[in-house]
Amino acid sequence: MLTPAITSQASITAIGSFVPERRLTNDDLSAMVDTNNEWIVRRTGIRERRIASPGEFASHLAIGAVRDLLDRYPLDSGSIDGIIVATTTPDSPFPSVASRVQEAFGMNGCLAFDMNSACAGFVSALQTANGLVLTGAYRRILVIGVETLSRITDYTDRSTCILFGDGAGAVLVEHAAQGAFLASDADTIGAGGPLVYASGLSDEWNGQPLAGEGKIVQNGREVYKWAVTQVPLAVRRMLEAAGADMEELDWFVPHSANMRMVEAMCERMDLPLSRALTSMEWFGNTSAASIPLALDLAVREGKLQAGNLVALYGFGSGLSQSGLLLRWTIQSKTGR
Ligand SMILES: CC(C)(COP(=O)(O)OP(=O)(O)OC[C@H]1O[C@@H](n2cnc3c(N)ncnc32)[C@H](O)[C@@H]1OP(=O)(O)O)[C@@H](O)C(=O)NCCC(=O)NCCS
């Protein structure tokens, strides 16, 4: 697959995040299923995750992330003309989480919709926002990644319940004369659908029954092999399209599925692990929220600096993969 450099008139100008109060530690999980802290940390790098309270849904987390963004960056919320929410776990099939965010902030004259490409969702939403800004019809679009995966996690299955958590991250994609999005990448292998899924209105796949009764089911080993093979190739494609080298890449921000996967990807790219930004250690695998959570952790720690070359790469159920190479454009002093 050839990855073209992209035309862009967009850059990221603000960021915010929000996670539920309640922590679920590895020791908590050890009391629920046959596992232990040592196994979970060694195989996944995850130490704890956040779990939404009974009355807390995706819209509450998304609204929390947008409120955090608006608190930290001077911005008239009335000037926002688009809201795209990437999620697999909306409050309800409809109305969208995006329309609940619109209502919470009274953003009038706004395009608002949800999209779902699972763990690739946030990057797919950024690509979509770039396209909308390029038309000239939209100038300021909120892109939100949010999940309440605890609602579709089977807490009797030790191979999945150790992985997933809840959270939200939001960025503002704004029109910029000189776009900061340099190259994009995407692929989908629909035949890989049964490797990681949650059944819904249908519980069959091409005539074969799907298990799990709406909870997450996965073949972790096969997903692992696919991702650690494909993502390094894709990052190289994006760098090549933008005329850049791996040495010039300041930060690699993969979907935070499992730290061991990130290590394997970095090894295959000859990239030091210290140049990867992740969020799974404290939040687990939060699907569409994992990349913006990792970005915001890095902003708060002062790691991400304006001008940095950053490769975002989402991958997961679909099987879907989606990448974006960009220049980071937020001045660090405006972060908290
Ligand atoms: C899920 C994952 C952590 C499992 O790690 P793994 O090294 O592949 O482990 P396996 O599934 O092969 O299981 C190895 C052994 O550990 C056991 N095991 C599984 N989960 C365990 C747990 N939580 N605690 C202790 N042992 C566990 C298995 O039962 C198996 O035991 P056996 O050898 O006696 O049969 C790993 O495959 C993974 O992270 N995959 C990617 C998943 C992913 O990214 N999914 C979302 C898509 S975005």
Low-pLDDT residue intervals, each spanning 5 or more residues: none
CATH topology heading of the largest domain = Peroxisomal Thiolase, Chain A, domain 1
Bound small molecules, deduplicated: coenzyme A
Rounded mean pLDDT score = 96
Overall 3D shape: globular
How many runs of DSSP E, i.e. beta strands? 15
Radius of gyration: 19 Å
Strands of the biggest beta sheet: in what spatial order?
Answer: 1-7-6-4-5
Structure description:
This protein is an alpha+beta fold. It has 2 domains: 10-175, Thiolase/Chalcone synthase (Peroxisomal Thiolase, Chain A, domain 1, 3-Layer(aba) Sandwich); 181-334, 3-Layer(aba) Sandwich (Peroxisomal Thiolase, Chain A, domain 1). Helices cover 31% and strands 24% of the residues. It has 10 helices and 15 strands. The strands form 5 sheets. It has a 5-stranded mixed β-sheet with strand order 1-7-6-4-5, with helices on both faces. A 4-stranded mixed β-sheet has the order 8-15-14-13, with helices on both faces. Strands 2-3 form a two-stranded antiparallel ribbon. Helix 3 packs across helix 4 (97-105) and helix 7 packs parallel to helix 8. The longest helix is centred in the C-terminal third of the chain and has 22 residues, at 220-241. The termini are far apart. 52% of the residues are buried. The structure holds coenzyme A (COA). The site of coenzyme A has 20 residues, from helix 2, helix 6 and helix 7.
